[in-house]
Every structure is written in structure tokens, then in C-alpha cells.
Write a structure and sequence with these properties.
heterodimer; A: alpha+beta; Ubiquitin-like (UB roll); DNA polymerase, domain 1; 2 domains; five-stranded mixed beta sheet; 5 helices; 5 strands; about 35% helix; about 15% strand; globular; B: alpha+beta; Uridine Diphospho-n-acetylenolpyruvylglucosamine Reductase, domain 2; Uridine Diphospho-n-acetylenolpyruvylglucosamine Reductase, domain 3; Enolase-like, domain 1; five-stranded antiparallel beta sheet; four-stranded antiparallel beta sheet; binds flavin-adenine dinucleotide; binds FE2/S2 (inorganic) cluster
Chain lengths: ~160, ~290
């Protein structure tokens, strides 16, 4: 199978790589770019752990081929914090409010929440839960996740 | 859980797509949003030799109104349909059903054409398209043909699409004045596939009499409930009327059993949902008469 050269921006930095067409975007991000914050749970679109932003929209990276991301802007959890010493308000609130336990689902949830807050800076709890329906968490029971997102929304609007 | 190898094609124009599909025939699959096809490939339930990616074909991504008819390009994302103001005001049933498709991440990639062509038994959009009497434009190398939504699905995940053909566009007529529509479904959790789903469209005249009705149930293929439609024509909405119509809607229908629900359960659920969807649609129709 012919390899293809692709160029994409990940968290603002340009990357060029060679890839087989069958390579999933999730594997390209993890194994070729070494950004292992994007987690892989089910590989068939159900769990949401692999959620990244493609041109600003949350999507399943396990349901896209890396070749399809040629020319795209990708955001992964590694790009969420503004710098090495500061957390994003969502990360701060997840930390404060105990919005994670094992952390497997967390990167996908943080990116989904980030897209939600961009579209709707003041979501109701119902809206937050609707957006989270595509992200499975087997530890927390979601209550603290919803609280963390609600409080982060206030924090983001305040800044 | 990795897909098998394939030859990848990313054409930019519709004529390149049809030329490729014409040349490759049964060896080719088109890739739309990938939200159904890529899971199948990851499981290796699908191993296409050639994948023709439609994502860079700008011609297939449009949403417009022409002559009062909504025209939806096959590559329109479900999330775009859901958020379009034109759709919300003129074809609210499409907005309503799209909200039931998976989750926001799925709808960001999943397309209108992909959902219709995939023809999964419990998918929401096909049922809505039959209810709204949409027409599908199929395109091959040799030209196009137009098929009614109702005649498009032959059975579980089987459609009239021939090798070399793709679904290019969907045309949805505007519902008549005095119409109301509704979609109801039962699923295990929010965002899951429907165990049963029903869409209804009811038109009332100024005196509140039903002048047109369409009712469609999920099933191996979307199923129009003609006996139920006939039962409400010329009548005034009432609970008794819709109860009787719902009973007729499920008389003799076929449903599948699987690990999520038995066929009997699905039939009972369809009956209850049909009653509610008809009542809901009639109420909305009456409200639109009151406003208009
Ligand atoms: C977790 C999860 C939950 C989901 N929940 C639901 C749900 O509740 N309801 C629901 O309806 N769907 C659901 N889906 C499926 C989703 O809606 C898909 O988007 C849809 O079924 C297929 O659309 P697609 O654009 O992704 O098509 P693809 O996956 O790219 O293609 C699907 C099939 O259609 C063919 N195809 C695609 N476009 C065309 C075209 N224009 N012409 C001819 N053939 C074409 C492909 O070759 C392929 O065989 C879910 C998916 C996931 C992963
Ligand atoms: S790994 Fe992609 S959705 Fe589960
Ligand atoms: S914190 Fe463990 S799965 Fe969510």
C-alpha cells in the first residue's frame, strides 16, 4: 500500500509525516507524534476516550484515517494548558472538584467540554450532560465532571 | 482492531468520483463520515480494496432551498443539518430526528448521505425522509436517477444503489400549510440506536380536519403505515382516533429480535410511539394553524 505524506497542525505546531492510508488518526497522534494523552478505549466510536478537536470540532480520532487530516488543525489534550506552569480552567476545576479518578476518559471529556464552552459559554446541566453522552466514564459517576464543567464555564467567562 | 489495507482515493470533483466508481465497480466503497464504515473496517467486517473518500468533494456539501424544496448535499454533516436555521424553521422534523443520532462527536463527522445509504434498521433519518416524502438523487457515471425515499431501502442495510452509483443529493418538499410533525423513539440510553422509532406528519384544514397524514416506523426497512394513515384521513384528532390508528399501524408488521429487544417488544413500542407521535404532530399542526 502506497504511503502518503501528510502535513497537519497539532496544538499549533506543524507536523509532517508519512503514513499508510489505513492508519487511524488516533494511532498517528499517539505512535507517530508521541502524543499519548489521546487515549484509545474501544476503537469503534463508542467510548469517546479518543476525542480530539479537528478544525475546532470534537470528533472520534479512532474513526478517521490520518490521511484525512492532511491540512487540518488538530487540538489534543496536550495543547489545552496555556503553558507548562498553568492549567486550563477546565483542568483546574477537574482537579479541584475531583472530576477524574483513573483519568482514562479525561482527555476526551476535556476536549468535548472545551468545544461546548466555545459554542455555549453558559450551558445548563442538561446541556452539559447531553454533550457528555458520547464520553463514557466508568469511575466517577459523572456528578463531579458536570460540576467541574459548570464551574469552569464561569471561570472562562470571568477571564 | 485495525483496518486492513486498502487503496485510498481522494477525488476533488463529482465527475472524478463517478469515473472512479465506474472503473472500480464492486471493489470500491465510498467513505463519507466514516461513523459506520470505519467501525466495520476496524472490526474487519468490511475490507474494501478501494476507498473513495468523498470528504474533499465540495460539490457534495451544500444545504439550500430551491423552489420551496430543501436540497441537501450527501456530504452535509448531520450537525450542520441540526443547526441550520432554514431546517429548524421549515423542516423541524429533520432537526428533531437528527438530535437523536448518536452524540455530538458522531454528528460532527456523520453525514446525511451516509446515514441514508447505510440504511441501518433503527436509523432515524431514513424514517424522517420517508415521512417527508423526500426524493433521492443517485448519480453514476452514465447519469442520474431520482428515487422516492420510500422506494430506496430494500431491506436491512440494502438499498437500490447499484455498484458505481452514489447518493448525491436529497430533495425534501416543504410540508403543506397547517402541518405538524413529530418523532418519538425508545432507546436504552440517550444517543443509542432506537429500539423503536416513529415519525408522523399530520396536516389539518381550517376546520381542524385531517387532510393528509404520513406515519413511518423503524423496522428492517422504514415502513409506512398506510392503514393508519387512511384511518385518520377526514377525521378530527382525538385520543380514540390515534389509538385505533396506532393499532392498525402495527397490524401484521415485521420487526427483528436481537439482544437488545424482542420483535414483540418492538411491535408494542411502535404502537405506543405511533399514538404519541400522531397526537403530537396533530397538536403542532393545530398550533401552526392558530399562528398562521
Ligand atoms: C457511537 C455511535 C452511535 C451512533 N448512533 C447512531 C444513532 O443513534 N442513529 C443513527 O442513525 N446512526 C447512529 N450512528 C451512525 C452514524 O449516524 C453514521 O454517521 C451513519 O450511519 C453513517 O454516516 P457516515 O456519513 O458516517 O457514513 P460512512 O460510515 O462513511 O458510510 C456508511 C456506508 O454508507 C455508504 N455511503 C456513505 N455515503 C454514501 C453516498 N453518498 N452514496 C452512497 N453510499 C454512501 C458507505 O460506503 C458505507 O457503506 C452512530 C455511530 C456511532 C459510532
Ligand atoms: S477509542 Fe475512539 S471512541 Fe473509543
Ligand atoms: S475517571 Fe476513570 S473512566 Fe473516567
Amino acid at each position: 500500500m502506497n504511503k502518503r505524506t501528510i502535513t497537519l497542525r497539532v496544538n499549533g505546531a506543524e507536523h509532517t509525516g508519512e503514513t499508510e492510508p489505513r492508519r487511524l488518526l488516533s494511532d498517528f497522534i499517539r505512535d507517530d507524534l508521541g502524543l499519548t494523552g489521546t487515549h484509545v478505549g474501544c476503537e469503534h466510536g463508542v467510548c469517546g476516550a479518543c476525542t480530539v478537536l479537528v478544525n475546532g470540532d470534537p470528533v472520534r480520532s479512532c474513526l478517521m484515517f490520518a490521511v484525512q487530516a492532511d491540512g487540518a488543525e488538530i487540538d489534543t489534550v496536550e495543547g489545552l494548558a496555556p503553558d507548562a506552569d498553568t492549567l486550563h480552567p477546565l483542568q483546574e476545576k477537574f482537579h479541584e472538584r475531583h472530576g477524574l479518578q483513573c483519568g482514562f476518559c479525561t482527555p476526551g471529556i476535556l476536549l468535548t467540554a472545551r468545544a461546548l464552552l466555545r459554542e455555549n459559554p453558559d450551558p445548563s446541566d442538561t446541556e452539559i450532560r447531553e454533550w457528555l453522552s458520547g464520553n463514557l466514564c466508568r469511575c466517577t459517576g459523572y456528578v463531579n465532571i458536570v460540576t467541574a464543567i459548570r464551574e469552569a464555564a464561569k471561570e472562562v467567562s470571568r477571564r | 482492531m485495525k483496518p486492513a489495507g486498502f487503496e485510498y482515493h481522494d477525488p476533488r470533483t463529482l465527475s472524478e468520483v463517478t469515473a472512479l466508481l465506474g472503473r472500480l465497480g464492486e471493489d470500491a466503497r465510498v467513505l463519507a463520515g466514516g461513523q459506520s464504515l470505519v467501525p466495520l473496517m476496524n472490526f474487519r467486517l468490511a475490507r474494501p480494496a478501494h476507498l473513495v473518500d468523498l470528504n474533499r468533494v465540495a460539490e457534495l456539501d451544500f444545504l439550500s432551498v430551491e423552489g420551496g424544496e430543501l436540497r441537501i448535499g450527501a456530504m452535509t454533516r448531520q450537525r450542520v443539518l441540526e443547526r441550520s436555521e432554514v431546517v429548524v424553521s421549515g423542516w423541524p422534523l429533520l432537526r428533531e430526528v437528527t438530535g437523536f443520532i448518536g452524540h455530538v462527536q458522531i454528528r460532527n463527522r456523520g453525514t446525511v448521505g451516509g446515514s441514508l445509504a447505510h440504511a441501518f434498521p433503527s436509523a432515524e433519518l431514513p424514517v424522517a425522509m420517508v415521512t417527508l416524502d423526500a426524493a433521492f438523487v443517485l448519480q453514476g457515471e452514465g447519469g442520474e436517477r431520482v428515487v422516492a425515499a420510500e422506494d430506496f431501502v430494500l431491506g436491512t442495510m440494502t438499498t437500490v444503489l447499484e455498484p458505481g452509483e452514489l447518493l448525491r443529493e436529497v430533495r425534501v418538499p416543504a410540508p403543506a400549510a397547517g402541518s405538524g410533525a413529530s418523532f418519538r423513539e425508545v432507546s436504552r440510553r440517550y444517543g443509542d440506536f432506537a429500539l423503536a422509532g416513529v415519525a408522523a406528519l399530520v396536516t389539518l384544514d381550517r376546520d381542524g380536519v385531517v387532510t393528509a397524514a404520513r406515519l413511518t416506523l423503524t423496522g428492517p426497512a422504514p415502513t409506512r403505515a398506510r392503514a393508519a394513515e387512511a384511518a385518520v384521513l377526514g377525521e378530527r384528532p382525538s385520543e380514540a382516533l390515534f389509538r385505533e390508528a396506532a393499532r392498525r399501524a402495527v397490524a401484521g408488521i415485521e420487526q427483528d429480535s436481537d439482544m437488545h429487544a424482542t420483535a414483540e417488544y418492538r411491535v408494542r413500542a411502535c404502537e405506543a410511539l405511533a399514538r404519541r407521535a400522531l397526537a403530537d404532530a396533530a397538536e403542532r399542526a393545530a398550533a401552526s394553524r392558530a399562528v398562521g
